[in-house]
Amino acid sequence: MPWSYPELRNRLIRAELWPQGRMAKLASYLAALAAGLFVLQKVAGLLAPSWGDHLSGWVDFLTFIAAVLFFVLVFGWVKRRILWRLRNRLIVTYVFIGVIPAVLLMTMAVITLYGLFGQFAVFVVTSEIQSRLRSMEAANLAISSELAAHLERGEKPLAVSLARLRQRDSSWNRRTVCAWYGEKKLPLCDDFGGSSIAFPNFLKDSFSDIVRDKDQLLLRAGTSMAIGPSRLTVVTSEPFDKEFVGKIAANLGEVTLDSFGLSSENDRSNRDKTSHQFTPSTVFTVGRVPTPAGIFDHEITFGTPLSIVNWTTGQAELGRASLAVVTRPAALYGLLFATWGEAVRGAAYILLGFAIFFALIELIALIIGTRLTRTVTGAVAQLYLGTKHVDRADFSHRIPVKSRDQLAELAVSFNSMTASIEKLVQEQKEKQRMENELAIAQEVQSQLFPRQVSEIESLEVHGFCRPARTVSGDYYDFLAASSHKMILAVGDISGKGISAALLMATIHSAVRAYSVESLPQMREPVAVGAVAGTGRMMATWPEGIEISPAGLLSLLNHQLYESTPPEKYATLFLGIYDGRLRRMTYSNGGHLPPAVISESGAIRKLEAGGTVVGLFDNMSYEEGAIDMRPGEILVAYSDGVTEPENDFGEFGEQRLIELVRQNRHQPLAQISQIVTHAVDDWIGDNEQPDDVTLVLARAR
Question: Please, which residues bridge with residue 597 across strands?
């Protein structure tokens, strides 16, 4: 029964063969587009061949992009299928860690040995060339000394030592020698076949190198020395040909001299008639490749460029000639260990033994790695089964421990973890409950701060508090006592967190409670009623009744001393503003002294009072009064505003007062915002160290 399209699609999706991701869909679209263009190309080719040629490039481009995308997708699919099991992952890991580095090291060793063998083969040839040049240069010095002695005595310049050299050393029969006194040839040139050598104008001292002279390569050494008013120059040459190189290649292998601009020995007229330039050619090849001594005795081919000097100009010509050597390791071993004799075969056996030994170690390592893989994968399988039980909230499952290794310790840790999960869950629930209660405490505390302030006609007020933690230990309040009187309170509780917030709530309640009690100065009952526009019950006093800030602080000090631990205390500033008299009566219980900033910028501090509230019993507080003219601003604050530090020190009281002074004509809420933003900038990325509280009051 044929499958329907939805069923076929679902089967392909389950087999991960249906394109689902963006890359898979893009690859499928590009492949379909390439196929469509290919069909169109064939059809167009039948109608007009040129049309098909235009589409060919697009078909190739789209096919290439689609092939790359499909390769990436297939690689990912194979990786997911094969490497899902940990055992396969470990096997692949061992291959990358053990096998591939070993293969790379072996490859590097082979390449290095090949380069060393090739370099040694070239060195054998070049060292022989340099040795021959040094020999010619030494002979030149002897000949020059002999000729110089004859010239200084005015005798005929003869080279008896050169004639003796030819008799003793057969290699001198191939060499030609010429000498010049000044630029005049001596008879020596005709006697020793050097008449064809051109005088080297560039030679000033000594010279030995391979030279190109009249389309030939020569080994040539030259010596020049001052003799009287002129210079004596002696030049010795030897052909750089098959005979010379063949002797070197006899025990080495095949040596080939390639050159650009030099003719081969078989064809000296190989020139380009149009450009009159020499074409690249092989000058000669001598020797033969040695017979292999074994299956590992492969050919080694290596080359090196030769430094060629143009004899006419004396300039070096780079890239004009090169030597290529084809040899085998056995031949190089024979040259390298020539003094060992038959012992070199033993050295080869020793190296082969080391190679077999290392191969056995690698094989044993693979076997041990495979066995260790099984132990690791078995332990991981047990851990996987254990996680399945944990996923089902079955914390009673335990993994069997059968060994005493790190995997066993992991199983023990897993068993300990399952035993601790339930406890952790309970602790998390308790923590969540505390966070919820803390959020409720924050919400309750926010209700304690005045949200709607009924300002009196001659005074506008504003307060701001931002806790360092969830709840605050700072306190401020505004109480409208009558139509022309208002109580201002600003405090700071010792410590932070919940305990400070509870003490803050206590002080808030006490200040409001004592504000409506009959104080010693009162002679009439206090009326409690709703101040118009506030919606809250506020204390009001009959006209003529006075309330003392110092008395309020004394009552609060006694209550806190009796009801709180010894380490708990508070700083508190209380002020009562009389709008008719435009006077602020206040008492400061250890709080940072508020400042009054006048229109001219003058500063007055409100310091009258006493020590902190709640630390000592039976404390009395002084009381002060200050007249506030229209436009003057009262600034009260906590240490969270002035004490934050950065690399430049504390924010400081002076910076706070300067900000308020510069913006004293702005609305109080905007002034508060400017100050808090400045404190935030001063703190930077650091955590806010303390509660930030700011109270502003401006006379109107």
Answer: 603, 633
